[in-house]
Structures are given as C-alpha cells and as structure tokens.
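Q&A log
Question type: sequence-to-structure
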Amino acid sequence: MRELKLKAMAKINLGLDVVRKREDGYHDLRMVMQSVYLYDRIRLVQSGRPEISVRTNLSYLPAGPENLVYKAAKLLMDECGIRSGVAIDLEKYIPVAAGLAGGSSDAAAVLVGMNRMFRLGFSLEELQQRGVKLGADIPYCLMRGTALAEGIGERLTPLPPAPECTVLLAKPKVHVSTKFVYGHLRANELEAHPDIDGQVQAIRDGDFDGMAGRMGNVLETVTIPAFPVIQKIKDAMLEYGAVNAMMSGSGPTVFGLFNDRKQAKAAYDRLRSGSMARDVYLTRFFQARGPERE
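Response status: OK
Response body:
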C-alpha cells in the first residue's frame, strides 16, 4: 500500500473528574470521552528514502521530530525496523491547544495508518500500548466513540453510543496551558465532583437528559477564574437553548449539547457573529465502528 488517507476525530469530555494527585506528579482521572465529527485530514505516502517528512497547512506547527505525528511514525519504524520512509501530509481543522485532543488524534491516525501501510499486524490493544508512550489521550483516540477513561486516561471501558444530539463548539481567543491548569489544580481539596458513575449509567440507559445533567469538569475551577470568557460562553450557550454546556478537557473550548438542531443553529450564528469565540463549529457525536479510520 503506497498511499493512505485518514481522518482524525476530535474528542470532548462529557465528564472530567480528578480523583487525586499521585506521588509521581500525575493525576488519577475519571472521564467520559466522546468523539465528535470534527476532524483533521492525514495523508500517508510511502517513500523509498528511509526518512519521515511532515507537511502541515499551519505555518506555526513544527514539521520535525517535535510533532506528534512524526513521533508516532518513528516509534513504529524504529521498533519494526521499517526501511522505507513515509511522507505525512497533515491538514489541520481541529483547533490547536483547544482541549479537543487534536494532536493526540493525529498521532493515533498515523499509528493506525502505519500499521496498515506496512502490514505490521498490531491489534488495537497493541497500538494502544505503544500510543500511551506518546500521550495519555492516544489510546482513546485509537478507539474513539464513547468510553470511560481512568488512570491517566489509558484505562478504557467502551460504552454504548451516547444519545444523539447536536453539539456546538466554541473556542475563545485565549491560550490555556495544560501544564498551568494541572499545576494550579488543588486536586486533593476539591469539594465537588461530577457524578461520573451516574453519567455512565445514563448513557447505558439512553437517557440524554440524565447524561447532559451530570456534565461536570473540575478543571474549570482553575480555568474560569483565570479566563472568565469561558464562563461567558457557557452562559451564552445556555441562554441560547443548550441543555447543558461545559469546557472540554483543560480548555479553553466550550461545548453545548442541544436536543433541538434549530436552536443549535441559531446559537451557532450568534456566537459566530459575536466577539467571545474565535472558532465556532456545529457538529454531532461520532460513533466509531472499530479501530479503522474513515
């Protein structure tokens, strides 16, 4: 196989709880993860030269060893002794540093693509074991769909497809560092925690209101005081008809869940015409059909 085209889906966290800060500095998490139909496009082309080249449509992204897609390709090339090279063409549509796991999803797509292109024969679980070396979100991005993630995010329990709805995404004009958020989180002093178990059960029951009503993200205790625009976008989405709204991951992207697409479209138009958000998308949940890419 000389050429392969892939789609790397964004994710949101329907629930995000930090259980505790561990002695090694990492945090134990419990999260409900959900893929959404917003994706980057990746094209892999096998080449004769034993090298990895990366081209992106964003001039500020690194195109060398610092890029996660480069690291993903190199990890499998080194382990499996691949003597051919690969050219990676990355078209970014998922906002960068947005709490949507765009970089992790890109790396996951490259792992899947390399596995197929060079007929390496790794199972999904084997790719996940390798992917976690590059990033905690990569095992989930390999699986996609709806899942409960625990540990640092690498322990995954697949869930039934979440109830269908319309999803509105809005990224404000601020940059939020994941390191900053976790560095300022007082994980062992949190007074309120989202009902992750209740949300999982609501998903199993196909209960949209129960799922949406249990949304919660403890990282907002850091980001909202530092970046009040996040709360303003949440409030606007609720005012415009969202059943609930929340920040995804470590932010700053906010998402709202709507059970009325017309209301969601009206909210999209209002946020697009306003000044709070730089990137606004109207989308839906994406449910995986297995580890293969689209």
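Response note: The longest strand covers residues 27-47.
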